[in-house]
Automatic annotation (TrEMBL):
Pfam families, per database record: HTH_1 (PF00126), LysR_substrate (PF03466)
UniProt record similarity statement: Belongs to the LysR transcriptional regulatory family.
UniProt protein name: DNA-binding transcriptional LysR family regulator
Keyword terms: DNA-binding, Transcription, Transcription regulation
Keyword DNA damage: no
PROSITE patterns: HTH_LYSR
Gene Ontology molecular-function annotations: DNA binding; DNA-binding transcription factor activity
Organism: Breoghania corrubedonensis
Matches recorded under PANTHER family: HTH-TYPE TRANSCRIPTIONAL ACTIVATOR TTDR-RELATED, HTH-TYPE TRANSCRIPTIONAL REGULATOR
Length: 299
């Protein structure tokens, strides 16, 4: 009888075009992966892969087999997961995408705590600051910090607002002066935190008044931790989520500026593919995550 794990391993090699990369993805050794694929080929009596010293490619039979067997294996796994869920067993793979800074600070404790409660789940965690297509990129859940959701093609769940504040280092303030109004920011180096690392416009509001400031004339970056470090190094003034700069504020490396002025509200939101019914394992993770960021460690 053919081992389903051998099929999964073969599909990983077919996707990665490499035994080593597939082994890394599966947290296995390369020899184990090689033996599993060879065993599958022996059982089928067909060569599935062409192997050279540098490349791995599919044979014509291997390409047909991969194309036909992958959806069947997905269906098999889905049926198993649904059956377990009907009996209250939370198990299976959860593919999660999150922003870099939030993922590094929050997800380690969330993942460890969730796995204690649900040890039969498998978490695949990917961090990126770019906006992903949750359907085509094949995720079960995407965590995002953005404006209020408007996307009609996905399911979303608003978790909590994410506070942003204006910060700079004491050294920068000593060298260039303390801005007392948003208009003063025009003569300062305002660092842009932007997905494309180009520039951004800060909209600041206070008691019905509004000001717009152009940031990114000196430095722009697409990662919050990077911009916080640059601000702490005295490179300029940054507008960042409080959770990113919280430790630097406590340590005195950064100080808050213009506390009466605030930018438009951002939300921490969970996005899902257009499920007919949210899988229990995904729903349980969502509940666990929400509890952590709203009660255990509020953002």
């Amino acid at each position: 009888m053919i081992d389903l794990d051998h099929i999964r391993i073969f599909l990983a090699v077919a996707e990665q075009r490499s035994f080593v990369a597939a082994a890394r993805q599966l947290s296995m050794t390369a020899p184990t992966v090689t033996r599993a694929v060879s065993s599958l080929e022996d059982q089928l009596g067909i060569q599935l892969l062409l192997r050279t010293t540098r490349h791995v490619s599919l044979t014509s039979a291997g390409a047909v087999y991969a194309a036909r067997i992958a959806p069947l294996l997905d269906t098999f796994q889905q049926v198993n997961d649904e059956l377990r869920e009907q009996h209250g067993d939370v198990a299976g793979l959860i593919r999660i995408n999150a922003p870099m800074s939030l993922g590094q600070q929050i997800l380690p404790d969330v993942a460890s705590g969730f796995r204690v409660d649900y040890p039969r789940t498998v978490l695949s965690l990917t961090l990126t600051d770019r906006f992903i297509d949750i359907v085509s990129d094949d995720y079960d859940l995407a965590i995002r910090i953005s404006e209020a959701p408007r996307d009609k093609s996905t399911i979303w769940r608003k978790i909590c607002p994410v506070r942003r504040i204006i910060v700079a280092s004491p050294g920068y303030i000593a060298a260039y002066g303390l801005p007392e109004t948003p208009d003063d920011l025009e003569r300062h180096s305002c660092l842009a935190y932007d997905e494309r690392s180009t520039g951004e416009s800060w909209e600041l509001r206070c008691e019905g008044k509004s000001r717009k400031i152009r940031a990114g004339q000196t430095i722009a970056g697409n990662n919050g931790e990077l911009m916080a470090r640059l601000a702490a190094n005295g490179e300029g003034i940054a507008l960042l989520p409080h959770f990113i700069v919280e430790e630097a504020l406590r340590g005195g490396q950064l100080q808050r500026l213009l506390p009466d002025w605030s930018p438009p509200e951002l939300w921490l939101t969970l996005y899902y593919p257009p499920y007919e019914r949210l899988p229990m394992r995904v729903a349980k993770f969502s509940d666990f995550f929400e509890t952590y960021v709203t009660r255990t460690r509020p953002l």
